Amino acid sequence: MLLIDCPHCGPRDENEFRYGGQAGIAYPDAPGELSDGEWAGYVFMRDNPKGWFTERWFHAHGCRTWFAVERHTVTHEIRTPVQEIR
Fold this sequence. Notes:
Layout: E1 3-6, E2 10-13, E3 17-22, H1 36-44, E4 52-59, E5 66-72, E6 78-84
Antiparallel strand pairs: 1-2, 3-4, 4-5, 5-6
């Protein structure tokens, strides 16, 4: 079980949160000009590293805030501080 440190509520059990995927994915500049293949790449293709990875999390059963954390995909260690996403 992960213990995630919410920037507003403090450390909480992972069951209070929802995973939001890889952080830092920019929306396409000209979405109307993308082919179906390019859209598929934007929507579905994400990094899958073995090591440190920046992820988005949503505190669904708390303050309802989105934030980013760095989590090690092998050990599940979470680095602090977290970064709130506005």
